Amino acid sequence: MLVRTKEIYDGAVPSGNSVAALNLLRIGRITANPEIKNLPVGHTQLMFALNFAFGPSYEVVVAGVTDADDTKTMLKILQQHCFYNRVILFRPVEEPEPEIVELAGYTKFYNAINGKATAYVCKNYACNSPTTDVSEMIMLLNKNN
Q: Quick one: pLDDT band at residue 91, thresholds 50, 70, 90?
């Protein structure tokens, strides 16, 4: 093979450029740094990226004990549902200064309520009241879509 081609359009597999655009936008959302605005050329996956960029987009912070069953359940449910315009962050409450606080400073004051895994569902950094109920968390995400 003399030349290795790089597709700039989405096919059965999204193009690398489209995936990179979406990942950069997600990083911008996670770090609360919206300055990442240069987008590569693409198609289908790029549309997801544009939709994510121009929103609304959602941040879900789960604060809980890392190995607790309620924390694992809450995170698993979030990962199973198809919410394209959201990022999920985990804030381990058993650590006084977890790494996520350095990356996403706004998570510093998010704590578990009464020792239970707690979800903070936010739309463009404006948060609803935190909830420890998985069904309410999903309802908040569905309501905001």
A: very high
Model confidence pLDDT, tens digit, residues 123-139: 888 899 999 999 999 99
Residue 91 has phi, psi (to 5 degrees) of -115, 105
Please state the three-class secondary structure of the chain as a single string.
CCCCCCCCCCCCCCCHHHHHHHHHHHHHHHCCCCCCCCCCCCCHHHHHHHHHHHCCCEEEEEEECCCCHHHHHHHHHHHHCCCCCEEEEEEECCCCCCHHHHHCHHHCCCCCECCECEEEEEECCEECCCECCHHHHHHHHHHHC
Determine the Cα–Cα distance for residues 43 and 11; give it in Å rounded to an integer. 9
Map out the domains of the chain as residue ranges. 16-54, 58-144
pTM assigned to the model: 0.72
C-alpha span between 43 and 54 (Å, rounded): 16
Q: Tokens for 68, please give them.
A: 């607790």
- CATH number of the domain at 58-144, please? 3.40.30
Is 20 in contact with 40 (CB distance < 8 Å)?
yes
